Amino acid sequence: MSDPNDFDPPPEQPSPDSVPLNGGRNGRPAQRRGASRFDAVPRMENVRVTAPDLARRVALEKTRSRLVIAAGGFTVLFAAVLTKLALATIVMPLAPHRVEKTVEEIVDSAPHGTVEATLPGQRAMITDRNGQPMAISLNTVALFADPRQIGDAEATAKELKQVLPRLDLDETTERLKRDKKFVYLAREITPREEQTINNLGIPGVDFQPTQHREYPLGRTAAQVLGGVDVDENGFAGVEKYFDERLRTQTDPLRLSVDLQVQAAVREELVKAMETFSAIGGCGIVMDVHTGEVLAMVSLPDYDANQVRTAPADDRFNRAVEGTYEPGSTFKLQTASMALDSGMVHIWDEFDASHDIHIGRFTISDFEGKHRWLFLPEVLAYSSNLGAAHIALTIGGERQRAWLKGMGMFGKTGIELPEAARPIIQPASAWKEVVTMTVGFGHGISVTPLHVVRGTAAVANGGMLVRPTILARDADEPVDGVRVMQPQTSDIMRRLMRLVVTDGFGKSAEVPGYYPGGKTGTAEKVQAHGGYKKHANVAAFMSVFPMNAPRYAVYMMLDEPHATKATYGYATAGWVVAPAAGKVIGRIGPMLGMLPDIQDMPEINQALAIPLQPGRPPGAPARGPGSAPAPAVADAAVKTTVGPNRPNLTVPATVLPPAMSRPAPDIRRQTTLERRPGGSVVAVSAVAPVAAASFVGR
User: Is 660 a catalytic residue?
Assistant: First the structure.
């Protein structure tokens, strides 16, 4: 019989919530060695895994995947950076970047030493008529800071000043303490300064690309060019007038100025100023057919690179901004008006034997001949008396119409914002005394360019052209208005030549160039009215060559003083006409005009006109013993100015035997006046004509 205990116990059933671990095969418990299977002890461990644990395991798996992806991305990024560095530094290294390029490098790199284009974003260059650079923009940088990132403003300012001595320490410190994101500290930083500041490693200090306007020729044509502010915006001269064009277009702006001619005029003007201790002067060269201004000099001048700090006196452009009484240079207008009207002929004579007195008002001649003068003599000897009688013969209304037609009542039209308007008498005040004084260049104030423009029309065949500072193309049409008959212009050219050969302009003669012209000396107006004694504006207006007029040359000195060499005279014929002759002799070859010596006898003969022309038989004449004709009332005069101007033939008139005393006449003039201490200021003043005494030169 078997033992009841001798049986296999039933296997223990696992709990449905447990999982056997480390069990035997088929889930059986492991058996100890050396023990019977009846002594076996179960060795299973049951671990319970809850749902939150499963969720955490899923989240960890996702995080691991993301880290792997991020690591791969960074690996690719660093690989790209390393590849780029290898290419830039080893495989294909780049040339070092230069922030600034000198004017010499830019000019040398351009074809034939000229600059043909500007980089995008730069202000366009300005060149002379031959392509030589006059103004150019260079790339540079500006130093700025974010004050919020600056720890010690005073220490930072001191560090920067060691690199940039031009910095104001107190101002820089104050800027670095401002509660702003951006403040400028300095502009136009050089590459060396930029590198040194970078080496300082100051947080919050950085650089911004900017431009710097450079004028490589310094003082040359400084008033013509003008200047730009710190933001490259034009505020004077050509830079202002063409500001939008220079900012929006890249091709150079080509001026009519010829730098060689400009330099020659300036040199001769400087010599004349020093010789005669003048406070200023100006010179103009203009093509009489196109109106192109080849030279415009105003002294004193300044370095165009220092325009923002230059004194206002130096920036004053006498050529277009200053208004002066033109003096005897205006007698060319009076003679042209008289001849073109048909009322006066070259054989007519005018009384220069006695001064003209109207109350306290007196007209006299300088070194007068004290006799009746023929029309050519009036110009050659610069007779105020003769010019006054000629003007009164024509009448005030005709005179106003003529001057208006010659552009003397408005701006010249040149492309310079400083160009001034003439100062003229109103029609209601244009009485006999004004008519006479304007006849010899007093009682009206115009700019030197007005005189040049009007004289060009007298010499070029009678066409009034607008002056321009821009170069014209050879085939570009020129708009002009006919203001006188060609026959009148032909006679006037001979009369202008006579002034140089036989008159007060002899010192302007240049053999082979046949210049003609007119001297002019006018007293300056005082700030409180009246005229300044011994303070004159001396000018010489010339055109050459008179056999084929091409260029007008104007030279003026402001308040010249006499020397022993001039025998105590400071008039135009002594002090400025020689300078005009020197300019003509120098610029002629520069402009491709060689002196014509071979044909000199024939040319002089063709230009000759006698000082005392004979009267054709049967022709009416005005002079001693001639019966005075009734005066022509101004109200009945009709004058035509234009291409169909008729050849007027009207009864001649003479100065009325008696003139009533007129009301005091007022004129205004803008000039420069030297003040105590040596400073020079612009003065716009009025002066009663009736209190003045005019002596012609």
Answer: no
State the Cα–Cα distance between residues 585 and 503, nearest whole angstrom. 20
Q: What is the tens place of the pLDDT at every residue in 588-645?
A: 999 999 999 999 999 999 999 999 998 888 888 888 866 444 343 333 333 333 333 3
Using a 10 angstrom Cβ sphere, with 0-12 exposed, 13-18 middle and 19 or more buried, the burial of residue 609 is middle
Count other Cβ atoms within 10 Å, centred on residue 99. Answer: 16
- Residue ranges and CATH numbers for the domains of the chain are 103-255 (3.90.1310.10), 262-303+316-696 (3.40.710.10)
CA 419 to chain CA centroid, Å, is 11
Which residues, at least 6 apart from 213, have a Cβ–Cβ distance to it below 8 Å?
123, 135, 136, 137, 138, 227, 228, 232, 239
Catalytic residue among 328, 489, 507, 542, which? 328
State yes or no: pLDDT of 450 exceeds 60: yes
* Residues 385-409: tens digit of each pLDDT: 999 999 999 999 999 999 999 999 9
Residue 420's nearest CA partner among 206, 665, 671 is 671
Instruction: Quote the CA–CA distance of 622 and 344 in Å, as a whole number.
Output: 8
Q: What is the mean pLDDT of the chain?
A: 82
Give the model's pLDDT for residue 610: 96
Is pTM beyond 0.70? Reply is yes
Residues whose CB is less than 8 angstroms from the CB of residue 557 and which lie 6 or more positions away in sequence, other chains included: 272, 273, 276, 278, 280, 281, 537, 538, 539, 575, 576
pLDDT at 536 over 80: yes
Please answer whether residues 183 and 244 qualify as being in contact, where contact means their C-beta atoms are separated by less than 8 angstroms. Answer: no
Other C-beta atoms closer than 10 Å to the C-beta of 188 total: 18
Sign of the dihedral defined by the CA atoms of residues 623, 628, 630, 633, in that order: positive
The CA-based angle 404-405-409, given to 5 degrees, is 25
**495-507 tens-digit pLDDT:** 999 999 999 999 9
